[in-house]
Amino acid sequence: MTKKQKKMLRRIIITVILMIVLHIAYEAFGAPADPVTGKTTSRWIVTEPVWFILYMIPYLIIGHDILKKAFKGIMNRQVFDENFLMAIATLGAIGIALIQQNGEYTEAVAVMLFYQTGELFQSYAVGKSRRNISALMDIRPDHANLVTENGFDTVDPDEVKTGSIILVQPGEKIPIDGRIVSGETTLNTGALTGESLPKSVREGDDVISGCINMTGVIKIQTTREFGESTVSKILDLVENSSSRKSRSENFISRFAKYYTPIVCYGALALALLPPIVLMITGNEPKWSTWIYRALTFLVISCPCALVISIPLTFFAGIGGGSRAGILIKGSNYLEQLSKIKTVAMDKTGTMTKGVFEVSGIHHSSIENEKLLEYAALAESFSTHPISLSIRKAYLDNLIWTIDEKTGEAIPKQPDEGQKEKRTLDTSRVESVEEIGGNGVLAIVDKKQIALGNRKLMDRQGVTFKECHHNGTVIHVAIDGVYSGHIVISDVIKPTAKEAIRAMHAEGVNTCIILTGDSKHVAESVGKEIGVDKVYAELLPEDKVSIVEELLSKKTDKSALAFVGDGINDAPVLSRADVGIAMGALGSDAAIEAADIVLMDDDPLKIARAIAISRRCMRIVYENIYFAIGIKVLCLILGTIGLTNMWLAVFADVGVMVLAVLNALRALRLPRV
Questions:
Q1: Residue in 56, 73, 71 with CA at minimum distance from that of residue 112
Q2: What are phi and psi of 435, to 5 degrees?
Q3: Are residues 389 and 467 in the same domain?
Q4: Same structural domain for residues 367 and 470?
């Protein structure tokens, strides 16, 4: 509990004790005289003004802040709020008791007591949800170990400049984005991605702030200042998400703005019109009865349940998403996400890994390892992604298994115990000639190696074999003799197919791939993962045009999401109803352009984000219908005199408590 909550709890306890004492005292010393005999059963009779003063003590203890807020609201011309309603209702009840000289001050104090108890509960519930979210997003580093000539100094992360060297010990958070210059370790990225699987990193790897160093001591050269680092951007997104309100939240704000004055004028009419009508018709007006009903009407009408529970539901939904590694920039995007019926997505980096890997060696006339070794040496001086993938495949010492039906070699990563450290001896390479748009010619071990596409083979007069697999095909010829080809492809992510299935299960009607890749490759990937439609060979402006066309065909009750890497797809991310950036850790373009940022590259989280939003909106509407329904029922009962102020405030507080408890369900993550 906070100090404020503890103080309120003390006030409630003191008020309850005083109420019990006053009730006992009133029974003993304040019993009214018998209307027939005129005698009292009490030995000592305390006068009415004394009881008034005594009851005002617990009333002011429990309600002085409400009265103060109501007075400030009146002075600031913001009259119609829940503080005004509670103040006017309880003061009115006290006024009636004072006029009737019946000592019924207990009701006014009890009404204020119930209300403050409900407020305490609401404050505790909101505080608990905030603490839960803060704990999930507890990634802000406390310090940075700045390396100096004499060791290191512990400084504030804000003081570390770009290019500085910092030391991160086991158990510490990485304070600033950078690149490892010394050491190797495993990182816990759970606070950022929601995944508990440790990530191994070593010298030369980029690391981001917010991850926890688990095993080894590492030195990092910072590539950003703290204010521009990933952890700062994430915290800024979470902290400012509440500033972007959804239509439902805006509706509640507008509803309360008009609703409160309407019920106040309605209560005034209830207090005046029936007695006036009774007077005109020659009946007794019974002013106190109708004023009491009007005051009860005011207590019932407090829109606390709606005003509190709706924003809390969105806050809890955003917090639940943060725990799963899904950053939602505002409740407006959360609401839009719940309407998604069409998901368009980029292929590379979204549904595929976006990293070229050797996926096979076909028609090899020599050993697969030897063919790969010659290719790696021939490509040893190139920085092209394809060259890098060939060298990596050789250095990783892949295990090759032969398909019995096709005779093709399929690579597999060796286990840790089977790994043999390899190096490339570039001294074996005598010369390398790169032929633009064709490939390379190299002399390796006195052998002429031709490595490239079909154009290079035609140029060298080498008869080659076609490849029917998806990916980039690198033909290899040694001394003018065709020796086989290497297939390099962008590997489909393990969860891509399951992600499409999960999106369909969440009510998404159409899943579309928009890619600049070739039609053959795109359609093959689309068929394998189960998308509904594929658009290939697109430029960035073509993607925008297609999204524009899709948006023109959708209804007002549906929405379109685009999922991309957040850098090349920034224009279409901005144009879609909801832009989702995949695998965007540390990407400024992604954080700026997208409405939702997934903290890792798992496409299954697209479906989870949709599931979170739909659950959140379901809870919002449950609270709206429940709160308004109970309010209307109680208002009708209060108008015809079938409920008193005790029951009215109990119903009001009860509805608020139930609505808040229901709102907190949004913190739980739905299954997909």
A1: 56
A2: -110, 110
A3: yes
A4: yes
Q: How far is CA 41 from CA 23, 33, 54, 106, 428, in A?
A: 16, 8, 21, 21, 117
- Mean pLDDT, the chain, whole residue set: 81
The residue length of the chain stands at 672
- The residues facing 482 across adjacent strands are 477
Active-site entry in 346, 490, 517, 565: 346
Where do we find the tokens 């092209």? 384
CATH number of the domain encompassing residue 367 = 3.40.1110.10
Number of domains the chain is built from: 3
Collapsing DSSP to helix, strand or coil, 329 comes out as coil
Q: Specify if 545 maps to a domain.
A: no
Structure tokens at 84: 């005004």
Buried b (16+ CB within 10 A) or exposed e, 390-400: bbebbebebeb
Query: How many other C-beta atoms can be found within 10 angstroms of the C-beta atom of residue 456?
Result: 21
Two tokens, residue 326 = 């899904």
Task: Give exposure, 271-304, as e/b (b: 16+ Cβ within 10 Å).
Answer: beebbeeeeeeeeebebeebbbbbbbbbbbbbbb
Q: Is pLDDT at 586 greater than 50 in this prediction? A: no
**538 occurs within a structural domain:** no
Please spell the DSSP secondary structure of 632-655, one letter per residue: HHHHHHHHTT-S-HHHHHHHHHHH
Q: How far is it, in rounded angstroms, from Cα 358 to Cα 599?
A: 27
Closest CA to 356 of 381, 383, 390, 382: 390
346, 569 Cβ separation under 8 angstroms:
yes
Residue 600 a catalytic site member: no
Which has more pLDDT, 357 or 15?
Answer: 15
Q: Quick one: 262 and 150 in the same domain?
A: no
Alpha carbons 525 and 521: distance in angstroms, whole number: 6
- CA torsion, ordered 568, 569, 571, 577, to nearest 10 deg: -160
pLDDT at 395: 84
User: pLDDT tens digits, residue range 187-234?
Assistant: 887 666 655 557 788 888 888 888 888 888 999 999 888 887 776 766
Q: Are residues 214 and 292 in the same domain?
A: no
Q: Report which residue type is found at 253.
A: S
The SS3 of residue 350 is coil
> Is 539 contained in some domain?
no
Which of 201, 377, 51 is closest to 59 using CA atoms? 51
Q: What single letter denotes the amino acid at residue 348?
A: T
Residue at 338 is within a domain: no
pLDDT at 211: 83
In sequence order, the 6+-apart residues with CB closer than 8 A to the CB of 38 are none
pLDDT per residue as tens digits for the range 456-493: 999 999 999 988 777 778 999 999 999 999 988 877 88
CB distance 371 to 484 below 8 Å: yes
Does 366 share its domain with 463?
yes
Tell me, yes or no, whether 391 and 429 share the same domain: yes
List the domain range (segments joined by +) for residue 77. 3-134+244-313+618-667
First to last CA, the chain: 35
| Domain termination site, one of 472, 492, 512 | 492
- pLDDT score, position 268: 87
Let me know if 561 is exposed, middle or buried by CB neighbors in 10 A (0-12, 13-18, 19+).
buried
Here the CATH number for the domain that contains residue 214 is 2.70.150.10
One domain for residues 215 and 264: no
Pairwise CA distance, residues 285 & 275, whole Å: 4
Same domain, 378 and 469: yes
d(CA 651, CA 634): 8
- The last residue of one of the domains, among 435, 469, 492, is 492
Q: What is the dihedral of CA 95, 97, 103, 108, to 10 degrees?
A: -70
Give the mean pLDDT of 574-581: 88
For 536, the token pair is 């290939």
Rounded to whole angstroms, the Cα distance separating 160 from 143 reads 10
Quick one: pLDDT at residue 43?
45
